[in-house]
Structure formats: C-alpha cells, structure tokens
Amino acid sequence: MLCLGIESTAHTFAASIIKYTFTESSLKNINLRNLRNSYARILSDSRDVYFPPKGSGIHPRIASRHHAEVSADILKQCIKEAGLSIRDIDIIAYSAGPGLGPCLRVGAVISRMLASFYKKPIVPVNHALGHVELGMMLTCADDPLVLLVSGGHTMILAFSQKRWRVFGETLDITIGNLLDQFGRANGFSSPCGDQIERLSSRSSGTYIRLPYTVKGNDVSFSGLLSAAKRLAEKRMREGMHFAEVCYSLQETAFAMMTETIERAISFTGKKEVLVVGGVAANKRLREMLENACERHSSKLFISPNKFAGDNGCQIAWVGIIDFLFREKEIKIEKSFVHQSWRVDTIDVNWRAT
Ligand code: AMP
Ligand code: MG
Question: In whole numbers, what is the pLDDT of the chain averaged over residues?
C-alpha cells in the first residue's frame, strides 16, 4: 500500500510517500500497539520551508502563497524520488489541522484535486497525531508518555481508552513560539530555536533568574518571554553580550518541561518517554529529560532530528494506519480543514487500550 502525505500546516510545505507492506499477521500487530517500522518504508520525503523576513513571524497568507508556488515542484520531486507515477499511489493523505487556515487550505485543495482526478481515497490527518505516530513508528516505543514540543504544540500525552489524552499543556504560547518570538525580537530569522541553542552553548553558563511558571501539569511561557525580552534589551543597552540570556531562557523553559514530565512519569508509572516536534532537536532539552528518565528508570526515545519537525512522512504514515482501520471511506466533499483540531478528540482505532 502506497500513501502520499501532504503537509502544509504552517511554515513547511512537504510531501512524502510511504510504502506499507502488510500481511494478515502484521495487521494484527498494529492492533497490539506494536507499530513496527519493519513493514513501513519511507520512499520519498520532499520539503520546502517558508522563511519570513528577519524579525517577523509567519504571515499566514504569505506563507500560503509560498506553499502554492512550491507545491508542484515538491510533488514532482516526491514522486520522482520514490520512482513511481502518481497513478501508483493508493491513498492521498493531507494535514487537516490544527494549523493556519490559508496554509491548510493549500494542502487540502491539492489533495482533493488529486484524489478526485485519480479516483483515490482521501484521508484528512491530524497534524499532532502525525508527530506522535511517526515518532512511535521510527523509535519503536511501545507505550510512552509523549512530549510534543513544536511551533504549534506543547503537550504531554498518554494513550488511554482509544485516545491520546492530554496530561499537561501550555496555558498560553508554545515552547517553539517562546523561542521564535524571543529570537525575532533580537533580530534573528524565524525559526530561531537552533540559533538560540548555538548561542547558549557558547555562553559562560551564568544563570540569570527568570519567571518559572508551572501550574499542576501545565506550563505558561508568556511571563518568561516578556522578562527574557526585557533582560535582553537591558543587556544590549549596556553593551553586554546576551548569550547568558539565551542560556537562562533555555534552562528555565526546559526545566519547566522536565518538571512536568517527571510528575507525569510518577503519576502514570510509564516506563517510556517519547519526545517529538521540532524542539526535540535541542541537545540541552534531551540532556535534562535523559536525567529525569534515569531518576525514574524510564527509557527516553527521541524522534530522529530529520523527522522531529514538520514533514510529509507523519501525514503519510497516519494516512495509512487510519485508512486500514477506518470502517467507511471519507467522501471528498466531506474532507475539511479544522484550524483548531485537538488531538484528544480523535478516536484512535489502531491502538488496543
Ligand atoms: P515544528 O513546528 O515541529 O516544525 O518545529 C518548529 C519549532 O522547532 C520552531 O519553533 C523552532 O524554533 C524549533 N526548533 C528547531 N530546532 C530547534 C533546536 N535545536 N532547539 C530548540 N528549538 C528548535
Ligand atoms: Mg508540527
């Protein structure tokens, strides 16, 4: 079975083809929470990222124009890399939300057009579910607590009774947004997480106290952002290097995430933690989580860097498993986009408990 997955929720327009080889017994395995990559192969993975001008965030309409402009080339590249023709594809999957409306609509329109012209089934995919399920498939984690840290999400999830339940989340901006907004205010180009990481690693390691806000299992980053911006301005005015501010920002935000993960491990007794989303690439975050997992004898799984951020494979993979376990096909005229589609509203038919 071949699925073309199209991703277009925010800054990235991406397309990927995954081939899933299934037998009766491998289908049974899926239902046993045992999605193993031995049956799935990523045949192609093409992407193009929209970079806003220095100092600005993503303007949804301008990003959607970028996606429309690059879409034909990305699709051609994706099909060529897989060595296939579009007629060989069995399923078309697209990210249907959550995300920026104009960007989501580009992927949805292209998918509907391909599905209707080539008479293929269409599968709308929840983008957050894509991050989680691709992470599960690539790392072979079995029953983890999932930390989803990206531009669009900051959530701790655990699977229970057919759904990925939210155990804790941000009460305001996401962790990716915290890093990107701080970076932009200081003249970086978005996304800024890796640039802040680079500067932090070059700092003297002097920690400057910043607001730390954990409320139960939830976190709040807006006070931290304002304080870090003020501190950076002051340092600039005084002609001082501001790498310590980047360092202190990372230390504070990641310690907040680590505290909530530790509490979630204690509460749920999970023996595995899986980290997915673009911020999973950060080495300092990994180190803090590694220490927390060690303290609780849990195993840490991290999505490979290449697949941590937004990509088409996450959509193609969920497209396949959703299609295999769906009772009825979705009619093209019922394939919508949902800008605020929460992951905990979706029944996950392919996992057992
Ligand atoms: P996603 O939305 O999953 O594509 O992830 C994008 C987010 O990941 C952006 O907010 C980036 O700033 C952030 N990011 C990417 N690389 C890193 C890194 N090395 N450290 C921290 N954040 C990162
Ligand atoms: Mg994402």
Answer: 93
